[in-house]
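TASK: fixed-backbone design
INPUT:
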């Protein structure tokens, strides 16, 4: 299998905050030893450029189970989470509208729109 493509993200923090103590942040560490990581200053001294790839395009163990057919998707998700943790201190989660259920009458979004049951 050919080498995986590099996935790259720019993190608005210095390298020592992105990789504290030279250790991979948890989202990348959980991918195991099957990934290569490159770190360098971002262009214009605007933070850190973090790049990652699976050299043979595959993962082993649990990571392989999570990846399915698209290893790049897992790499992109891990990079997004690293950036969020470094820049905000927590992974960002999308807001989900609250749905109320009414027996026999369907559902209603908190915004008041009725949904078929």
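OUTPUT:
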């Amino acid at each position: 299998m050919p080498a995986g493509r590099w996935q790259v993200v720019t993190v608005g923090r210095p390298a020592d905050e992105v990789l504290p103590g030279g250790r991979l942040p948890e989202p990348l560490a959980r991918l195991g030893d099957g990934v290569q990581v490159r770190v360098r200053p971002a262009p214009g001294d605007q933070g850190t450029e973090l790049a990652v790839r699976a050299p043979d395009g595959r993962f082993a163990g649990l990571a392989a189970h999570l990846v399915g057919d698209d290893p790049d998707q897992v790499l992109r998700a891990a990079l997004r989470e690293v950036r969020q943790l470094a820049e905000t201190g927590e992974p960002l989660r999308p807001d989900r509208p609250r749905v109320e259920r009414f027996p026999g009458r369907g559902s209603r979004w908190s915004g008041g729109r009725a949904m078929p049951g």
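COMMENT: Residues 71-88 form the longest helix (18 residues).
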